[in-house]
TrEMBL record:
GO molecular function: hydrolase activity; metal ion binding; nuclease activity
Family label: Belongs to the HARBI1 family.
Domain DDE Tnp4: 47-208
Manganese recorded as keyword: no
Keyword RNA-binding in annotation: no
Organism (species): Riccia fluitans
Compartmental location: Nucleus
Pfam family of the protein (one): DDE_Tnp_4
UniProt lineage: Eukaryota, Viridiplantae, Streptophyta, Embryophyta, Marchantiophyta
GO cellular component terms attached to this protein's record: nucleus
Keywords from the UniProt entry: Hydrolase, Metal-binding, Nuclease, Nucleus
Name assigned to this protein: DDE Tnp4 domain-containing protein
InterPro entries: HARBI1-like, HARBI1_dom
Domain of life: Eukaryota
Needed co-factor(s): a divalent metal cation
Length: 272
């Protein structure tokens, strides 16, 4: 059975290898024009984290996989576009890890903060995340604990309206491939962790393939289980290292610029 599964995954990876790809400049322009209708003309993607539950405690460092929901799991970072196509993912880290911590370990994060960032983003472009993320020049996150501040609350509402597309994307992914709701095997070593990463990759490749063929998920296919968390449930981002604090200060300024642009657009009678 394992050999057959490996052959199928190899075939999927070979035939559909281009289904997961970062949008090129023309596609980024198109995506940004769609999100502009929600008050975010520079947005080219939406990020959120989800967990993939494990039926058993992993054999190595099992306690690190115990997440805040009381399950053993691995974390998955999902970035999607306006069409619910997944343009980037990163998975394999224990479910107890914070979303920001996982994203910082990804190749995307490294490229975002290198001289290669111009290959991923044009001037003024970024992606949006919830308040569990830390804002940067290329990642704009919602405010945590708006505290009755109307501008912050309105801005968070605008982000929530746009980000629902990512939550639906993850819901459709898991509804199509039920194995992502719970993996019924025990992770015994690093090789089995990598096998699970391949399994997730193949599921996403197939998701994007069906998405590109306009095989939309409908009510007839079953309900979409959307993972929605309130601001109170989202854990605080970990304290950033000292060498990142200047970058975070720039990120906060960037968020204020995006907030000002978004609220001006919405209060002129556009959008929601």
């Amino acid at each position: 059975m394992v050999n057959y599964t490996n052959r199928v995954m190899t075939a999927i990876e070979c035939c559909l290898k281009n289904e997961i790809s970062w949008p090129n400049r023309l596609e980024r322009t198109r995506i940004a024009s769609v999100f502009a209708a929600g008050g975010f003309p520079g947005c080219i993607g939406l990020v959120d984290g989800t967990t993939i539950r494990l039926s058993q405690r992993p054999a190595e460092d099992g306690e690190t996989y115990f997440d805040r929901k009381g399950d053993y799991s691995i974390n998955a970072q999902i970035i999607s576009d306006d069409r619910k196509r997944i343009i980037y993912f990163f998975t394999g880290m224990p479910g107890s890890c914070h979303d920001v911590t996982c994203l910082r370990q990804s190749s995307l994060w490294k490229r975002m903060h290198s001289q290669q960032q111009h290959l991923l983003f044009d001037r003024g472009q970024y992606f949006l995340g919830d308040s569990g993320y830390t804002s940067g020049e290329r990642l704009v996150a919602a405010f945590r604990n708006a505290g009755g501040d109307k501008d912050k609350t309105d801005f968070n509402t605008c982000i929530a309206h746009v980000r629902i597309a990512n939550e639906h994307c993850i819901g459709i992914l898991k509804s199509r491939w039920h194995s992502l709701k719970e993996v019924r095997t025990q992770l015994k070593n690093r090789a089995e962790n990598q096998y699970l990463v391949r399994w997730v990759r193949c599921s996403i490749l197939l998701h994007n393939f069906l998405n590109r063929r306009r095989d939309d998920w409908t009510e007839a296919d079953g309900p979409i289980e959307v993972e929605v968390e309130s601001e109170v449930q989202i854990p605080d981002p970990p304290t950033p290292p000292l060498d990142e604090r200047a970058m975070i200060a720039r990120g906060r300024r960037r968020r204020l610029e995006v907030q000002s642009e978004c609220l001006a657009y919405m209060r002129n009678g556009n959008g929601h």
